[in-house]
Amino acid sequence: MKIKDFAVMGFKNLWRRKLRTILTAVGVAIGTFSIVIMLSLGIAMTEGYKNQLAEWGNLTKITVNRYGYYYDEESGMGVSNEQKLDDNIVQTLSEIEHVRGVTPVLNVDARLKSGKYEAWCSITGIDPDTLEYFDFPEVASGEYISDDNPTALLFGQNACYFYNPRGNNNWNNESPVDLMNDQIKITFDGIYDSTSKTPKYSKLNVAGVMAQNDTEMNYSVYVPIKQAIEWYKKYNPQYKKKKELSYESIWVSVDDVDNVKQVQEQIKAMGYSTYSMADNLDDVQEISNTLQLILGGIGAVSLLVSAIGIANTMIMSIYERTKEIGVMKVLGCVVTDIRKLFLFEASIIGLLGGTIGLALSYGVSFVLNKYAPEIGGMIGLSSNQAISIIPIWLALSALGFAILIGIVSGLYPAKKATKIRAIEAMRTEG
Amino acid sequence: MEAIIEVKNATKIYRVGTEKIVALDNVSFTINKGDFCCLLGSSGSGKSTLLNIMAGIEKITSGDIFIKGKKITKMGEHQLAKFRQKYLGFVFQSYNLINSLTALENVELPLVFKEEPKKIRLKKSKEILGKVGLEKRLKHKPSQMSGGQQQRVGIARAFVANPEVVFADEPTGNLDSKTAKEIMGIIKQIAEERNQTIVMVTHDIEIAKFANKVIHIHDGHIERIEGEQLNEEN
Hints:
The structure holds two protein chains of two kinds. By secondary structure, chain A is of the alpha+beta class. Chain A folds into two domains: 3-55 and 283-426, no CATH class; 61-255, no CATH class. Chain A is built from ten helices and 13 strands. Chain A has helices spanning 3-16, 18-56, 87-94, 225-235, 237-242, 260-269, 277-330, 335-370, 372-378, 392-418; strands at residues 61-65, 67-72, 77-82, 99-114, 117-126, 139-142, 152-155, 185-187, 202-203, 205-210, 221-224, 249-254, 274-276. In chain A, strands 1, 4, 5, 6, 7, 8, 9, 10, 11, 12 and 13 form an eleven-stranded mixed β-sheet that branches. In chain A, strands 2-3 form a two-stranded antiparallel ribbon. In chain A, a hairpin with a 2-residue loop joins strand 4 and strand 5 (117-126). The longest helix of chain A is centred in the last third of the chain and has 54 residues, at 277-330. Chain A is elongated. The relative contact order of chain A is 0.19. Chain B has one domain (34-59, 74-233): Rossmann fold (3-Layer(aba) Sandwich). Chain B is built from eight helices and ten strands. Chain B has helices at 47-54, 77-87, 103-113, 118-131, 147-159, 177-194, 205-208, 229-233, and strands at 3-16, 19-32, 36-40, 62-67, 70-71, 88-91, 165-169, 197-202, 213-218, 221-226. Chain B is globular. The chains are: A alpha+beta, B alpha/beta. The interface between A and B is medium-sized, with 28 and 34 residues.
């Protein structure tokens, strides 16, 4: 028989037992629906967590800290060791494959003053040429730092809190100082030692202020690294004693989030301890895999039940069609065609159920996401995050799986059908 | 005359519990091409068993059946199915039409199994349905037709692939005598037109009169074989 003939006969056979076909398909639909919805929740959770991590920091960024923390197996405790970070290391790191930008980081603390207001701030020196790799927010006013204007600072929107040392401060108010337009002075005196000599202020240059955002950059002040080194050498008491400079940390930007792990391993192999948001991602991935396995397992049970339903329906149908199958044999239908016909019918039930289940899943997913702000808030997800995501691969594999379930459930009934003997056609009853 | 079916020492023994029932006991005969052969006997005589064995529907206990010189008693299931597609047609007592299919689709069925192209299938099926007088009922389901009409569809289905031999098991057993005669007339007419061989089982002497060769079966034995003379009396 040809495919088209199987289709015509198969559909007619299924249609003749409409109610039973539909009920069986509904079983498959419920199974498919459970699996798809369960997995979609798991996928959405992973996505949500990824987005949250990305909000907290750049996922393609690896940080090598001067004071690296690691877990010491002998003592069973977390210990820290100092690793000297200099330009040689910066150079070495920038030569690793998949690394697109490296900057040394050095902090210098300073005090700012504008009129009667004062502020403490930590100024971070970075290489201005690498700004683009570390997801710096847009500048709301002014411009980014550059080596052309080395003393000009780049402020995060909430980098400095100006307060009045001799007055009442309302901590909720907007900053009383306009960074771009007000006169601001800076001093490095009286920061590292509490000697009470009068600080010497000099005029501060502001390059720009960045737009409001959710990362650490919102609370930081940046300056070109060359300037930071200069200030550090001039004012840092430790440097004054030892005359030895080590960067606070080194930031490494990797071209793709998938390569972060590989690069990180290489840096570790050089003997440096590292930190990246991707470290957390691994844990999240593991948790979400376990979660999806459990959720998918629950769905799989209902699909298993529906597989038994299909097998049952097909076996019933064989009992009803015993004579018909006998007649087909007498009329010259080969055994393989009988098997194919039954497998076809079983897989169509699977496909039908899978399609209904998938449609149902998309519907429920839509409703869930529509009310996601309320529900998501209840279970602690950020409010704009979808709580059910059905990627196209999930939809397609669910359909494929439903068909497969149909075929597998149809195997035994189909085999049984081929065993029916031609003599059944000769029975006069029925 | 060319022999188309040869039955040699056919024996069929059924086992019911520990008891053996001999349904056919060492039966031998020959049917020629173009014969309208009737296996006549009362209920339980073994005539239906004989037909089933000749068509390869039931396994033989011992002996051999040759159709067109091929030993069908040694064929496997697949081979037998292919042989049926090519050379054999069937008419059943209870019509055995597929209820979910229309008259036209039922008639098409043997050609579907043969994997003939759709166009040719339709042409042949419509033509043969016209011959049995059902050109206006192509789209009817079996449940919408009378017994006589259903059996006409059954006949069309048996003849559509132009088989060399058509087996008919009590084809008029469920019909009134007037319709039965019509049905027999149709079978005889088509078979004669195409020089096809008919092997028919019946218990009805009136129906047997349509045959040119009548084999009387009693208790698993051939009682006697009548040749052309019955036909002449008709």
